[in-house]
């Protein structure tokens, strides 16, 4: 049996009772409010660094939730956190579904989860476009292949097949040759300015530590939530 067949067979067994029986007991690692940073952005920055040191493959991977302003349907996807300053920054195609949703309804949710440390952070806030100069500066740091891919892909739009994507990439490669690749007008970033941030630490018997920052005036208030 091939590895793929083993995987399919294992997946087929995870139905009903098997899924219900899946459990993980977390270590009793406490999260003390006295040890939290005063600003949740500093706390998230520290946890991302610790996740990287702990061996997480992509410690900056985060789930982004948006709501379609017309249909009021929530959608989620994974993006990469690329900066923490006044807010939480990620970059993407500005004509993608996520960007269209944020343009119509800037309210956003973010979730970072680190299985190795049994931690997660959920963020609520309002997204604003990253200024062009800032997007240009980040674009210049991207690998050339990623730059070409951004020109080749009309993100979220229907595409005939994989060959069409490959042809678009070949065309972009011919177009720019060995010249520097400019940032496409349809590519940029979003900064989610937080109004609430919850930090979560897994504990034994499902009595997890949940501490929630809430923006009050110019400062942050922290409350403990029941798990």
Average pLDDT confidence is 92
Helix content: 25-40%
Structural class: alpha+beta
- The span between the termini is 43 Å
The tally of helices reads 7
How would you sum up the major sheet?
9 strands, antiparallel
| Number of strand segments | 9
- Spell out the helices and strands N to C: HHHEEEEHEEHHHEEE
What's the alpha carbon Rg, rounded to whole Å?
A: 21 Å
Shape: globular
Poorly predicted residue ranges: none
> What fraction of the residues are assigned to beta strands by DSSP?
25-35%
Name the descriptors.
227 residues, alpha+beta, nine-stranded antiparallel sheet, globular
Question: In words, what does this structure look like?
Answer:
The chain is an alpha+beta fold and 227 residues long. Helix content is 31%, strand content 31%. Strand 1 (61-67) and strand 2 form a beta hairpin.
Q: Which helices and strands appear, and what pairs or packs with what?
A:
Layout: H1 3-13, H2 16-21, H3 40-53, E1 61-67, E2 74-80, E3 83-84, E4 88-93, H4 97-104, E5 107-114, E6 119-129, H5 132-139, H6 144-152, H7 162-176, E7 187-201, E8 209-216, E9 219-225
Antiparallel strand pairs: 1-2, 1-5, 3-4, 4-7, 5-6, 6-7, 7-8, 8-9
Structure, briefly:
By secondary structure, the protein is an alpha+beta fold. The protein has helices at 3-13, 16-21, 40-53, 97-104, 132-139, 144-152, 162-176, and strands at residues 61-67, 74-80, 83-84, 88-93, 107-114, 119-129, 187-201, 209-216, 219-225.
């Amino acid at each position: 049996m091939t590895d793929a067949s083993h995987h399919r067979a294992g997946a087929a067994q995870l139905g009903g009772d098997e899924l219900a029986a899946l459990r993980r007991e977390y270590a009793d690692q406490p999260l003390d409010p006295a040890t939290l940073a005063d600003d949740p952005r500093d706390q998230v920055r520290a946890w991302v660094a610790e996740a990287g040191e702990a061996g997480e493959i992509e410690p900056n991977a985060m789930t982004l939730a948006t709501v379609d302003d017309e249909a009021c349907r929530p959608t989620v996807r994974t993006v990469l956190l690329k900066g923490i300053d006044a807010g939480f920054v990620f970059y993407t195609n500005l004509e993608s579904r996520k960007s269209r949703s944020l343009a119509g309804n800037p309210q956003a949710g973010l979730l970072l989860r680190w299985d190795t440390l049994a931690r997660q952070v959920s963020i609520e806030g309002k997204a604003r476009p990253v200024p062009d100069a800032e997007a240009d500066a980040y674009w210049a740091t991207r690998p050339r292949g990623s730059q070409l891919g951004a020109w080749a892909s009309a993100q979220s739009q229907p595409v005939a097949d994989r060959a069409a994507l490959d042809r678009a990439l070949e065309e972009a490669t011919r177009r720019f040759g060995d010249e520097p690749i400019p940032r496409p007008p349809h590519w940029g970033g979003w900064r989610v300015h937080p109004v609430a941030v919850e930090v979560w630490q897994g504990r034994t018997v499902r009595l997890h530590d949940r501490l929630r920052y809430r923006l009050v005036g110019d400062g942050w208030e922290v409350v403990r939530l029941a798990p």
